[in-house]
Design goal:
Order of helices and strands of chain B: HEEEEHHEEEE
Number of strands of chain A: 9
Distance between the termini of chain B: 7 Å
Helix content of chain B: 25-40%
Shape of chain A: globular
Oligomer: heterodimer
Distance between the termini of chain A: 13 Å
Order of helices and strands of chain A: HEEEEEHHEEEE
Largest sheet of chain B: 8 strands, antiparallel
Largest interface: A-B, 37 and 39 residues
Largest sheet of chain A: 9 strands, antiparallel
Strand content of chain B: 35-45%
Radius of gyration of chain A: 15 Å
């Protein structure tokens, strides 16, 4: 079965919703999927998880530093300054768990896929631009009371 | 992380860069750095899974990226880091990491790699893994390329 856009992206939106609920007690509403241009401007922090296997690609969770700080505080039950490195570790772990759950679902839907994940890489900065050459990606926006998270999933050669 | 983890990346640089037309390639310093690093203008991130898991970030200045892309495109002038230059640097990151993956297989370690993602910006910092990062400088005629390797071993 080919990856269908509503199937695999749905796995990610469900995974994000469940994970935010379990880890932070936070509700989350996912918007509709849309096509992502090859280059996009980050809100301030981008967590990138690579996909290897029969359909190589990547997952990007993108959010503002302030949203990342608030989510980290809720998840860990502690207060953080905006520059605290624990925010990076927490967002890295969030991306890891969300991606892991989603990819497990996607693999279960098609046993031949054998997709695996790489550890997350976290980027932060000003005027941060992310480009994925030769990747066809789609994204959805998830809104939470603490801010929004963009989730982008893309594969080599297209959707 | 020990020398056996580093040498595949060095091997890849010394075989891939000459193959794309870079004639002057030398190793600079190697240092173990903290988890969060300040990067240069342009970073190409590639992830690894399999017997070795982690990330490698190839970091370079804008002028170096354009210089390397120009050499890869047979000397065509590259005035800005446009789509063609992005594609060239992405392809280079792919070739270098594939080369390292092949070298790892010689050690009996099987590694798959993800497609590269390019990141540009100002005051950019990166955490390539939750372990300390090994940073290797490669000096080329187009300028300095830094390989930042974070592997879970």
């Amino acid at each position: 079965m080919d990856l269908k856009k509503d199937n695999y992206l749905y796995s990610f939106s469900l995974s994000l919703k469940e994970t935010l609920d379990e880890m932070a007690g936070l509700p989350c509403e996912a918007g509709p999927p849309r096509i992502q241009p090859a280059t996009f401007e980050s809100a301030g922090m981008a967590v990138i998880v690579g996909i290897t296997g029969s359909r190589p690609g990547r997952i990007i969770l993108d959010l503002s530093m302030e949203t990342a700080r608030k989510l980290s505080e809720l998840i860990n039950g502690e207060e953080y300054d905006i520059n605290d490195e624990f925010i990076l570790y927490t967002m890295s772990e969030l991306a890891n768990i969300v991606s892991g759950r989603a990819i497990t679902q996607v693999n279960n839907m098609d046993r031949g896929l054998g997709l695996r994940l790489t550890p997350p890489g976290v980027f932060l900065g000003d005027r941060l631009y992310i480009t994925s050459p030769k990747i066809g990606a789609e994204l959805f926006s998830a809104s939470t009371p603490e801010g929004s998270i963009q989730v982008s999933v893309g594969f080599e050669g297209g959707r | 992380m020990d020398a056996k983890m580093v040498s595949p990346f060095l091997e890849a640089f010394f075989s891939v860069l000459p193959a794309v037309g870079m004639s002057d390639v030398r190793r600079g310093s190697i240092a173990l750095k903290e988890k969060l690093l300040a990067t240069r203008d342009i970073t190409a991130l590639v992830g690894l899974s399999g017997d070795i898991r982690g990330n490698v970030a190839y970091c370079m200045g804008d002028d170096t990226a354009r210089g390397v892309a120009s050499v890869m495109m047979m000397g065509m002038p590259v005035d800005r880091f446009d789509e063609m230059a992005q594609s060239a640097i992405s392809e280079l990151a792919n070739m270098l990491t594939s080369g390292a993956s092949t070298a790892f297989s010689g050690q009996g370690l099987f590694v798959n790699i993800s497609p590269p993602t390019l990141i540009t910006g100002q005051n950019v910092k990166v955490m390539v893994s939750q372990v300390r990062t090994l940073s290797i400088e490669i000096i080329t005629e187009a300028g300095l390329i830094e390989i930042n390797v974070g592997l879970e071993v």
